[in-house]
C-alpha cells in the first residue's frame, strides 16, 4: 500500500461526511471554523483529483495480472468479456490447416452414407435411404429418395455408398437466397448428376463413382459405392446420367436418434421444406476434453457427430467437421469467421 493510501481514505471520509451531513454540527456559528472546513474539503478534493490517474493505472495493472493468471475477479470482468484479439483467431486458422484458405467464407459441409436397391432395363430406378450429417451445424437426419438413370443393360442390384458434399454459401447469396439453417433445408429437394459404373462380368459385382448437383449449381456432392446384383450391362465400364429427389423420413430419423449412444438435443428440433416440418437430430457437445475451451461448443459437438459415423467416413470427414465447428465458434465468440482469421495467411 502506498503512502498516499491513508490520505486518500481520509479524503474520501471527509467527502462522504460532507455529502451525507454526518459531521457533528458546531454548537454555535463560527466563521473561522466554516472557512477552515471549506479549505479542508478543497484540499481533499484536490488530493483525490491528483490520485485518480494513479488509481486508474493500478486498476488496469490488476486487470492485466488477473487475466494473465486466469482469474475472474470483479475488477477484471470487463477485460475478460472483451473480444479476444485477432492473434487468438489466427491460432485457430493454423490448427485446421491450409485447405480452406483463399475463400471468403466456408461453404456448408456434409457427409452422407446410405444403402440402395435398383432395377434396370435401360431405365434404371433406384430407391435409397441415406443418413446425412450437416458438418456445419452438427446435425443429422435420414433421407429417402428415388433416382432415375439411363444405363446400358438390365440388372437387379443392391449396395451401399458414402461421400461428401457442400453448398457454396457465397454463390447462394449472389442468387438472392439465404443459407440453409439446418440439414432439412439444405439436403431436401431435386438433383441431377452423372456416374461412372464398373461391372465385373459374371461375378455380379459392381462399383460406382458419382457426382450430383442442383439446378442453381450451389450444391455439389460426390460419393463412392458398390454392391452385388444379377444381370449384366452391355458395357462393363460405362457412364450414366441420373435425376432424383430426396426428403426426410421422420420415422427413420427418430428411430436413428433413439438408438444412438451419442447425446442429442431432445425433443428433436424441426426443419421446414415445401411448407412441411420434418424432425432432425442436433448433436450435444462432448464433455470438455483434449484441452478444448468451454465455449468451443460447436467444435465439441463436431466430435459427438464424428462418433456417430462409420469409421472410414468419420476419418475422411474429421478435418472438415472440426474446421466447420471452429468456424462456428469463432463467429459466435469473436464475431469473425475462420476465413477472416486466415486472411493474413492467404497466398498473394
Description:
With 348 residues, the protein is α+β, with helices and mostly antiparallel strands. It has three domains: 4-81, no CATH class; 108-248, no CATH class; 253-345, no CATH class. 37% of the residues lie in helices and 33% in strands. It is built from ten helices and nine strands. It has helices at 4-20, 31-68, 77-81, 86-95, 169-174, 183-187, 250-259, 297-307, 311-334, 338-341, and strands spanning 108-134, 139-167, 189-200, 205-213, 219-233, 237-248, 270-273, 276-279, 281-282. Strands 2-5-4-3-6 form a five-stranded antiparallel β-barrel. Helix 1 (4-20) packs across helix 2 (31-68) and helix 8 (297-307) runs antiparallel to helix 9 (311-334). The longest helix is centred in the N-terminal third of the chain and has 38 residues, at 31-68. The protein starts with a helix and ends in a 7-residue tail after the last helix. Residues 1-30, 70-87 and 97-102 have low confidence and may be disordered.
Amino acid at each position: 500500500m502506498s503512502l498516499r493510501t491513508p490520505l486518500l481514505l481520509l479524503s474520501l471520509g471527509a467527502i462522504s461526511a460532507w455529502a451525507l451531513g454526518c459531521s457533528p454540527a458546531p454548537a454555535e456559528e463560527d466563521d473561522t471554523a466554516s472557512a477552515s472546513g471549506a479549505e479542508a474539503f478543497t484540499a481533499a478534493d484536490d488530493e483525490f483529483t491528483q490520485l485518480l490517474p494513479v488509481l486508474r493505472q493500478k486498476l488496469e495493472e490488476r486487470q492485466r495480472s488477473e487475466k494473465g493468471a486466469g482469474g475472474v475477479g470483479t475488477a477484471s470482468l470487463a477485460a475478460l468479456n472483451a473480444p479476444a484479439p485477432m492473434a487468438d483467431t489466427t491460432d485457430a486458422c493454423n490448427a485446421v490447416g491450409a485447405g480452406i484458405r483463399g475463400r471468403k467464407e466456408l461453404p456448408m459441409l456434409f457427409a452422407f452414407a446410405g444403402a440402395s436397391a435398383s432395377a434396370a432395363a435401360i431405365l434404371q430406378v433406384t430407391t435409397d435411404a441415406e443418413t446425412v450429417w450437416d458438418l456445419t451445424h452438427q446435425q443429422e437426419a435420414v433421407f429417402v429418395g428415388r433416382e432415375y438413370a439411363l444405363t446400358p443393360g438390365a440388372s437387379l442390384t443392391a449396395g451401399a455408398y458414402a461421400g461428401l458434399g457442400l453448398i457454396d454459401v457465397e454463390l447462394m447469396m449472389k442468387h438472392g437466397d439465404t443459407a440453409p439453417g439446418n440439414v432439412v433445408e439444405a439436403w431436401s429437394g431435386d438433383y441431377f448428376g452423372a456416374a461412372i459404373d464398373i461391372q465385373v462380368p459374371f461375378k455380379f459385382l459392381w462399383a460406382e463413382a458419382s457426382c450430383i448437383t442442383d439446378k442453381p449449381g450451389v450444391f455439389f456432392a460426390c460419393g463412392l459405392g458398390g454392391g452385388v446384383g444379377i444381370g449384366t450391362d452391355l458395357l462393363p465400364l460405362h457412364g450414366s446420367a441420373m435425376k432424383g429427389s430426396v426428403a426426410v423420413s421422420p420415422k427413420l430419423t427418430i428411430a436413428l436418434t433413439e438408438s444412438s449412444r451419442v447425446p442429442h438435443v431432445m425433443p428433436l428440433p424441426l426443419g421446414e421444406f415445401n411448407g412441411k416440418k420434418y424432425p432432425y437430430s442436433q448433436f450435444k457437445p462432448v464433455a470438455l476434453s483434449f484441452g478444448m475451451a468451454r465455449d468451443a461448443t460447436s467444435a465439441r459437438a463436431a466430435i459427438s457427430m464424428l462418433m456417430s459415423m462409420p469409421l472410414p467416413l468419420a476419418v475422411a470427414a474429421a478435418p472438415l467437421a472440426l474446421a466447420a465447428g471452429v468456424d462456428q465458434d469463432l463467429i459466435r465468440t469473436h464475431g469473425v469467421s475462420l476465413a477472416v482469421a486466415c486472411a493474413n495467411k492467404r497466398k498473394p
